[in-house]
């Protein structure tokens, strides 16, 4: 056995060590354990939140989205559509028209995001699991239907079973020079029946999804489109398909993956995760300061042992390693217990969902948790690094006693 480690282990586990130093050492282990457990739990919760948002994205956003590099409209030609559909990995290409519009139902009004889609949208089956009423069909028996988000339904008080009250959609006419809000002639107006209601999350629930031709007529888009949304084959690599498409369609279009479409939100989650990691790392540092004090006092208490070791031929390097190992054992014991407790708490939350999010309209009742091995490595490296830093000075002082 390594001699410095053997001596350090004896100091660490000695049953005769009933002094104040022992109390400080135990407090150090407890502090490191609590800090480590908190890091594991909080990082796993942030991972869970990121994964939950990705699940929401998959329920609404396409795998790839093609938008114009300049302006708001794309001139979708048959040649362009053929190029896109023949790209390896592309399963469906949905033409989309999207803009804000005024929705009116009975005596209520609200501004909504109007999204016109072609027939391939129904084949994507993205909203199937989010439906709370009706179907995702935007055309039924030759009649256009609207699929609305839960927020729109609540704000307008829409009753899907009321066949007498249609949903009215208004959009300013493009040939009107000055907009007169009191003049009905200043707006294009269309009526449509609600055929389905879905509920995902607030940022997705303010949409009204209608047939493409219906939106084109209301918004004066003609043959232009806002974007082309692509659903890929199950095993297709989104980045590889994106790269292939960029070579084909040129610089006139911007192609974004699902993560890139929601880059701001994902970036915010990662920044919050980083700041929380730094904050909890400071807690571990405070606990490590206790290791510094306990080692310093241990060096003073073991002066006779240190002199005896030097008399027996021990080098300064060997004595220094003894106290570095001692600090490492204190930190490792605390970190091991903290990691174990953190894993147990995360597993219990994953399995039983004990801690609720407290949101009635949320898709999940409890805080989502996802354990990632990289977080355990980061936590371990953080604890080891802090321990080595705070243990170095006491170990150096012990080595200088010879």
TrEMBL record:
Question: Sorted alphabetically, which PANTHER family does this protein's record hold?
Answer: LIPOPROTEIN-RELEASING SYSTEM TRANSMEMBRANE PROTEIN LOLE
What topology does the record note for this protein and the membrane?
Multi-pass membrane protein
- Give one Pfam hit by family name: MacB_PCD
* One GO CC term, this protein: plasma membrane protein complex
Domain (MacB-like periplasmic core): residue spans on this chain: 27-247
Q: Where are the transmembrane segments?
A: 20-46, 274-301, 322-352, 372-393
Q: Indicate the family of this protein.
A: Belongs to the ABC-4 integral membrane protein family. LolC/E subfamily.
Q: Which InterPro entries match?
A: ABC3_permease_C, Lipoprotein-release_system, MacB_PCD
Q: Which residues form the ABC3 transporter permease C-terminal domain?
A: 279-400
Protein name per the record: ABC transporter permease
Q: Where in the cell is it found?
A: Cell membrane
Major location, coarse class? membrane
Single GO biological process annotation from the record: lipoprotein localization to outer membrane
Alphabetic keyword roster: Cell membrane, Membrane, Transmembrane, Transmembrane helix
């Amino acid at each position: 056995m390594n001699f410095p480690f053997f001596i350090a282990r004896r100091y660490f586990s000695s049953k005769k060590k009933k002094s104040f130093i022992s109390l400080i050492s135990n407090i150090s282990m407890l502090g490191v354990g609590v800090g480590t457990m908190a890091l594991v739990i909080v990082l796993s919760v942030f991972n869970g939140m990121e994964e939950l948002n990705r699940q929401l994205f998959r329920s609404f956003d396409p795998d790839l989205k093609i938008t114009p590099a300049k302006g708001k409209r794309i001139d979708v030609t048959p040649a362009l559509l053929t190029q896109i559909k023949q790209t390896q990995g592309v399963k469906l290409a949905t033409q989309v028209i999207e803009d804000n519009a005024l929705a009116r139902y009975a005596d209520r009004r609200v501004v909504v995001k109007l999204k016109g889609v072609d027939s391939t949208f129904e084949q994507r089956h993205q909203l199937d699991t989010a439906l709370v009423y009706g179907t995702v069909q935007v055309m039924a028996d030759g009649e256009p239907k609207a699929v609305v988000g839960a927020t729109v339904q609540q704000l307008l008080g829409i009753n899907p079973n009321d066949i007498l009250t249609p949903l009215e959609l208004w959009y300013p006419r493009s040939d009107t020079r000055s907009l007169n809000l009191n003049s009905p002639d200043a707006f294009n107006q269309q009526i449509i029946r609600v055929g389905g209601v879905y509920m995902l999350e607030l940022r997705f629930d303010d949409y009204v999804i209608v047939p493409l031709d219906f939106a084109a007529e209301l918004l004066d888009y003609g043959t232009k489109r806002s974007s082309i949304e692509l659903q890929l084959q199950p095993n297709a690599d989104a980045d590889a398909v994106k790269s292939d498409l960029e070579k084909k369609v040129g610089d006139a279009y911007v192609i974004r993956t699902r993560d890139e479409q929601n880059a701001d939100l994902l970036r915010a989650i990662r920044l919050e995760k980083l700041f929380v990691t730094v904050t909890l790392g400071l807690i571990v540092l405070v606990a490590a300061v206790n290791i510094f004090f306990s080692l310093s006092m241990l060096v003073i208490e073991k002066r006779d042992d240190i002199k005896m070791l030097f008399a027996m031929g021990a080098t300064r390097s060997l004595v220094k390693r003894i106290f570095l190992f001692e600090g490492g054992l204190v930190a490792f014991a605390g970190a091991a217990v903290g990691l174990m407790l953190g894993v147990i708490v995360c597993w219990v939350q994953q399995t039983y969902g004990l801690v609720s999010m407290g949101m009635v309209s949320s898709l999940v009742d409890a805080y989502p948790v996802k354990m990632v091995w990289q977080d355990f490595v980061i936590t371990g490296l953080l604890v080891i690094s802090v321990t080595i830093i705070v243990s170095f000075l006491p170990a150096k002082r012990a080595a200088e006693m010879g």
